[in-house]
Amino acid sequence: MSPQLAAYTTSTGEAFQFWVLGTVAVIGALSTVFMKKAVHSALSLAGTMIVLAVFYLANGAYFLGIVQIVVYTGAIMMLFLFVVMLVGVTAADSLKETIKGQRWLALLCGVGFGVLLLAGIANASLKDFAGTGQANANGNVQGLAALIFTKYVFAFEITGALLITAAIGAMVLTHRERTERPRTQRELSEQRVRDGKHLPPLPAPGVYARHNAVDIAGLLPDGTPSELTVSKTLRDRGQMRDVSAEALGDLRALEQRSEERLERTPVEPAHFKRSEEASK
Amino acid sequence: MENLIALLIAAPLLGAAVLLVGGRRLDAVGQWIGTLLSTTSFVFGVILFVDLLGRNTDDRTLIQHLYTWVPVAGFQADVTFRLDQLSMTFVLLITGVGSLIHLYSVGYMEHDERRRRFFGYLNLFLAAMLLLVLADNYLLLYVGWEGVGLASYLLIGFWQHKPSAATAAKKAFLVNRVGDMGLSIAIMLMFTTFGTFAFGPVLSHATDASEGRLTAIGLMLLLAACGKSAQVPLQSWLGDAMEGPTPVSALIHAATMVTAGVYLIVRSGAIFNAAPDAQLVVTVVGAVTLLFGAIVGCAKDDIKKALAGSTMSQIGYMVLAAGLGPIGYVFAIMHLVTHGFFKAGLFLGAGSVMHGMNDEVDMRRYGGLRKYMPVTFITFGLGYLAIIGFPGLSGFFSKDKIIEAAFAKGGTEGWILGTCALVGAAITAFYMTRVMLMTFFGEKRWQPDEHGHEPHPHESPKVMTIPMIVLAVGSVFAGGFFSIGDRFLHWLEPITGHSEGDSPISAGVVTGATMVCLIIGVGIAYLQYGRRPVPAVAPRGSLLTRAARRDLLQDDFNHVVLVRGGEHLTRSLVYVDHTLVDGVVNGTAAGFGGLSGRLRKLQNGYARSYAVSMFGGAALLVAATLLMRAV
Amino acid sequence: MNPVYYLYLAALLFTIGATGVLIRRNAIVVFMCIELMLNACNLAFVVFSRMHGNLDGQIIAFFTMVVAAAEVVVGLAIIVSLFRTRHSASVDDASLMKL
């Protein structure tokens, strides 16, 4: 195939790749918008970005393709996930609209804009593709470097300043100034004694139970769960699992089994799931 | 010699500054400082007078250029003084009579705590008046004019603890302000007409301007003169000005203030000569005022107010004479000078009577005082004879000349004005005889005041009687001295000019008629007040009497026409302002407010709403771009 | 296949991202949608680079990435401090700029 022809047609392989991965990208984009949980949105977006990285590579932008995977998918999306976790991974977004007419206006604008954009592209005569073969002759990275450090050197320096500014800005925004002297451990313990609150360390989760997961409350001697044993963050998020019913069930099964052995009353049908386990 | 002119003004001005700034240290000697400095000014005046007499008739104008006040291109105001025969006459009258009044005040104000300040104000008054008559241009004259207004305000309201005095001072100041406006407009008109306001160029080129313009200037000058000289229609302040201490009344009525208007008209004679219509108005104002003042004077029981009415009437004579043009200018000034003597004497006499009667002013509480205060009686009596025009005394010569001049105006106007003047002379004789009889003759009618103090009438101390004696001598001899050989006429003629006019009746007939009027007036008064006892409470009297007691309803007229009218005008303007002007303004504001209230709903605070607007805008931009490409 | 289809894809992704910004209330998701729009632009730039046969388009895309990184850093910091003070990541809760 002559280079001239390669300019405005692509190989069958690339066409196949475009249609398959393009569908994936659109689906990813749509699920970014419509997924209820922010985590799912983030994962969908990461998928779309990887597809875009492949497209960059297909278009001859080898450096950008790798950077897209390393920086975007690797760093920025992980930053997103980190903030999502900080804010609360399970906090689901209500999709009910609160501003009157907002959704309809948004859809109208979106459809109108998209149609206009597509019409614009279709209207433009974009038949002539020169291809990147010539430009990438000495290697893509070398070509970019030559441009960045000559033609775009000022813009490059300014982006450096921009990044530093952004870093400082982020620190200023999230840094909390301490306005009072932090209380020492001694003062804190004296305070606790004076208030008559819980003095010894808080009980660990899962005590008296066969679970040691952090989201399962430990049981008190009467079998009720103690909220003190679970981290406050999990309690606030409502992610505490209650297994107290199981323990009580086990106890009842044990009693029944001993009755049987003593042949006091006829055996009642066991309706507790873990009867065998309790008998071991 | 010229350099002495500024000292004339500087002496009393220095006195005012020292006395008003000096503070309590000068309380003990303040009255003597004031008197000394005013006398100093008089001495300078005499020196200059002697110098003028020694010069040729054509060479008697002295000019002293002190400095240039406003040096702007096309508008130059100099502080320049002009001393000529007219100014000289005024300087001698002001400083001479003024010094005598100073001396009298030393006795009269002996017990007043704020005496030092009083003398400071008196000196300020003299300085302002001297500046007025010595100025060489109308703008500087205006400064003196305003200074006189200020000083009169301070002096009339000197006993400011009395609300009536404070009100009277305010009234005098406000009424004067109306006149001042006339003077300022006249000065502006002069500047636009002649390009200057110095006496020399304005008066020598007066005939170059159009008659309409000159009439306008003349009428504005007349308005100014009406304010200062208490002529109808701006006469209302004069009676109330009696609230001031009696020496102030004497100063205002005899030597200063009220004479300023006459001076202004005579000084601007060239303008009036070229504007006959303005002159006619001047004579009408003078004639009306002389009758008005005389009628008011007849009805007043307050001795000072009766004298105030008399002043108004006599100034009316002068204005009438000044309005007659060259026929009358000299006689206006001559009457002004003789009036300065006898009216000052009369006021000082009245002050002396009050001084001996516990400040009682009601003549119905006087009576038979000639036995108790002989010097006052004799000096007052000589002043009385002078003012009614008793043959041989000052008033006889000057008033007779004015009546003659009024007839000499010629035509119907001459007859009317002359008759007015004659009737005025008769009424003058009546009310002055009334004052004389009620005060010094008949039974004693005084009673204890509210504190039970019986007045003990007594003669005033020497420091008060000496000025009265001097003034009485002036009242007797000044007229004769001026008239014999037409001395005064020859003295003033180079400045004012003179013409004889053509009198339809001879001078002898006029004098005879005047005498007849005089006898009629005195006779009626004697019949009413000399033959019968004077009731202690004023009888109700006829409609005219009651109106005259209320100053011929001048205040009612002012209240109804000016105050009420002003109130109505203001109220309607306020209404227009509230409904129309404020309506437009507030309506616009309310319209924008309502519009903003509706537009504000777009700003709901939700970032996403704003984002929709941005996105819609971007879509419109794309659409526009495509549209432009398609076109 | 004509490479112009890449441009259609970029326009589609951009529109989806913009609509997402308008519809979603969770600030983090809004941010992700903005990233999606930026990436769509990047794709367009890369395709333009291929069209013109030079590397300038790729340079622009590279700068876009840098700017996006800076924006993400600041934006996420804002979201974190917003969440700290208001205990919510909803963009509608930060609506005090009205009467």
UniProtKB/TrEMBL annotation, chain A:
One Pfam family in the UniProt entry: Oxidored_q3
Subcellular location: Cell membrane
Gene3D superfamilies for the chain: NADH-ubiquinone/plastoquinone oxidoreductase chain 6, subunit NuoJ
PANTHER family tied to this protein: NADH-QUINONE OXIDOREDUCTASE SUBUNIT J, NADH-UBIQUINONE OXIDOREDUCTASE CHAIN 6
Keyword Transmembrane: yes
Catalytic activity: a quinone + NADH + 5 H(+)(in) = a quinol + NAD(+) + 4 H(+)(out)
MF annotations from Gene Ontology: NADH dehydrogenase (ubiquinone) activity; quinone binding
Enzyme Commission code(s) on record: 7.1.1.-
Residue ranges, annotated region (Disordered): 178-204, 254-280
UniProt record similarity statement: Belongs to the complex I subunit 6 family.
UniProt topology in membrane: Multi-pass membrane protein
Entry superkingdom: Bacteria
InterPro entries (UniProt xref): NADH_UbQ/plastoQ_OxRdtase_su6, Nuo/plastoQ_OxRdtase_6_NuoJ
A GO term from the CC aspect: plasma membrane
Lineage: Bacteria, Bacillati, Actinomycetota, Actinomycetes, Kitasatosporales
Bilayer-spanning residue ranges: 16-35, 42-63, 69-92, 104-124, 144-173
UniProt entry keywords in alphabetical sequence: Cell membrane, Membrane, NAD, Quinone, Transmembrane, Transmembrane helix
Enzyme superclass (EC): translocase
Organism: Streptomyces fuscichromogenes
Basic and acidic residues: compositionally biased ranges: 178-198
Role played: NDH-1 shuttles electrons from NADH, via FMN and iron-sulfur (Fe-S) centers, to quinones in the respiratory chain. Couples the redox reaction to proton translocation (for every two electrons transferred, four hydrogen ions are translocated across the cytoplasmic membrane), and thus conserves the redox energy in a proton gradient.
Protein name: NADH-quinone oxidoreductase subunit J
From TrEMBL, chain B:
NADH-Ubiquinone oxidoreductase (complex I) chain 5 N-terminal domain location: 69-119
Pfam families with a match to the protein in the record: Proton_antipo_M, Proton_antipo_N
Keyword Acetylation: no
Source organism superkingdom: Bacteria
Span of domain NADH:quinone oxidoreductase/Mrp antiporter transmembrane: 135-421
Keywords from the named record: Membrane, Transmembrane, Transmembrane helix
Gene Ontology MF annotations: NADH dehydrogenase (ubiquinone) activity; NADH dehydrogenase activity
GO biological process, alphabetically ordered: ATP synthesis coupled electron transport; electron transport coupled proton transport
Keyword Zinc: no
Cell location: Endomembrane system; Membrane
Matches recorded under InterPro entries: NADHpl_OxRdtase_5_subgr (IPR018393), ND/Mrp_TM (IPR001750), NU5C-like (IPR003945), Proton_antipo_N (IPR001516)
Gene Ontology annotations for the cellular component aspect, listed alphabetically: endomembrane system; membrane
Gene3D superfamilies per record: 1.20.5.2700
PANTHER family to which the protein is assigned, alphabetical: NADH-UBIQUINONE OXIDOREDUCTASE CHAIN 5 (PTHR42829:SF2)
Classification via NCBIfam families: NDH_I_L (TIGR01974), PRK06590.1 (NF005141)
Stated name of the protein: NADH-quinone oxidoreductase subunit L
Organism, as annotated: Streptomyces fuscichromogenes
TrEMBL record, chain C:
Subcellular location: Cell membrane; Membrane
Bilayer topology: Multi-pass membrane protein
Record bears the keyword Endoplasmic reticulum: no
Any one cellular-component term (Gene Ontology): plasma membrane
Principal subcellular localization: membrane
Any GO MF annotation of the entry: quinone binding
Gene3D superfamilies in UniProt: 1.10.287.3510
Entries under InterPro entries matching the protein: NADH_UbQ_OxRdtase_chain4L/K (IPR001133), NUOK/Mnh_C1-like (IPR039428)
TM regions (residue ranges): 6-23, 28-48, 60-83
Keywords, sorted A to Z: Cell membrane, Membrane, NAD, Quinone, Translocase, Transmembrane, Transmembrane helix, Transport
Pfam annotation, one family: Oxidored_q2
EC number: 7.1.1.-
GO biological process terms, semicolon-separated: ATP synthesis coupled electron transport
Source taxon at top rank: Bacteria
SUBUNIT field: NDH-1 is composed of 14 different subunits. Subunits NuoA, H, J, K, L, M, N constitute the membrane sector of the complex.
Its job: NDH-1 shuttles electrons from NADH, via FMN and iron-sulfur (Fe-S) centers, to quinones in the respiratory chain. The immediate electron acceptor for the enzyme in this species is believed to be a menaquinone. Couples the redox reaction to proton translocation (for every two electrons transferred, four hydrogen ions are translocated across the cytoplasmic membrane), and thus conserves the redox energy in a proton gradient.
HAMAP family (alphabetical): NDH1_NuoK
Annotated family: Belongs to the complex I subunit 4L family.
Protein name: NADH-quinone oxidoreductase subunit K
Gene assigned in the entry: nuoK2
